[in-house]
């Protein structure tokens, strides 16, 4: 913490101002554009040359949590009370909220409307997936529903409004619990068409992350209709023991946040919240135990020890261990050409550290120029340099998505939608 605070003071922003975008539509505002040219370096041996302009294109969202592309120009944004907005990134317009989900979403503590993701065949089926906490204070759970997006367009084909219809619940984490912590919920489609997402340990159910008779502290994998894929790791076990949950893909998680399938490496990445210290990036593989709460590099918020172990046999070590905790919230692997410096790097958003944390991975086999012993989960990948950007915004960054042209869109807890573009 000490070292990072010191380093972030080196961060500065140039004062170059750019033209603000004209406001269009009901609730669109565009505030500033400035150019950020330098980052403080978390533990880097070279400077990452990432220069970008920053525009706050909306600032009246209610605790936005998820943002997802429907196509090149349109994005859905969830708000914690269950409302959903449509952002037109070409015309810079924000729709009025759709309220289909507000009666079904339990907004309290860390709960509420969570993530949104479009079906890979969205252009044909208009389907989106939404996660949220359902229930009430004494009995709640992470739930996943689908809905169809209906777009109304004017004569020029420009979208004028949207609505959601045919809400259908396809997964509810079991069992229900009390209290309103650790729901996880970020969604990702795998290349085989299955849908993967985390369910948190519920905070008061951390020990259940180690057993297969519940969904707490798990990464879940289901088909796009909610059914269980036949090749899930515990399907056969569940046939013999009905207490086993066949939706489980991996276990021993605390509160998974960002999830991203990196097609170039054929790897599923996730970051997750540790307790005080011990935040992690993991490469997620089926049937593996990621250790929580038997192993962790963190301690309890009270300062007491959760476990004496940071490593045990048959439990995965994190790919990246962030101690102190940066509180990651989402992640992507940058694939675009707009910011060449970011290509192939892990771009993580942070709540507590209020920054974008860029992580470089190194292929150790390539570095050694010969085959090396590979870990089943991690393959040849190991973390190299890390850099911190965006600290000057003073915002808890909640979700990030890359547009077709390589821009980055970020939503913040204070209600902003910020666009990073070429400087
Ligand atoms: Ca772990």
From the N-terminal CA to the C-terminal CA, the straight-line distance is: 30 Å
Largest sheet, described in full? 5 strands, antiparallel
Radius of gyration: 21 Å
- If strands are numbered along the chain, what order do they take across the biggest sheet? 1-2-25-24-23
Uncertain runs? 1-27
| Structural class by SSE content | mainly beta
Q: What is the overall silhouette?
A: globular
Mean pLDDT value? 91
Bound molecules: calcium ion
Query: Could you give the count of β-strands?
Result: 25
Classify the helix fraction into a percent range. Answer: under 10%
**Beta-strand proportion:** 35-45%
Q: Given the structure, what is the number of helices?
A: 4
Output the helix-strand order: HEEEEEEEHEEEEEEHEEEEEEEEHEEEE
Domain Glucose/Sorbosone dehydrogenase: 61-419
Pfam families: GSDH (PF07995)
Protein name: PQQ-dependent sugar dehydrogenase
Organism: Psychrosphaera ytuae
What would you note in describing this structure?
The protein is mainly β and 423 residues long. The chain has a domain at 1-60 and 326-423. The chain has helices at 2-8, 122-125, 235-240, 364-368; strands at 33-36, 52-58, 64-69, 74-79, 84-88, 93-94, 113-118, 127-136, 139-153, 159-172, 187-189, 195-199, 218-222, 248-251, 255-262, 267-273, 279-283, 320-322, 328-333, 346-350, 356-363, 381-389, 397-402, 408-412, 417-422. The chain has a five-stranded antiparallel beta sheet, with no helix packed on it. The chain has a four-stranded antiparallel beta sheet with strand order 3-4-5-6, with no helix packed on it. Strands 7-8-9-10 form a four-stranded antiparallel beta sheet, with no helix packed on it. The longest helix has 7 residues, at 2-8. Mean pLDDT is 91; it is low at 1-27. Calcium ion binds at residues 280, 290-292, 318. It comes from Psychrosphaera ytuae. Residues 61-419 form the Glucose/Sorbosone dehydrogenase domain. This is PQQ-dependent sugar dehydrogenase. InterPro entries: 6-blade_b-propeller_TolB-like, Glc/Sorbosone_DH, Quinoprot_gluc/sorb_DH_b-prop.
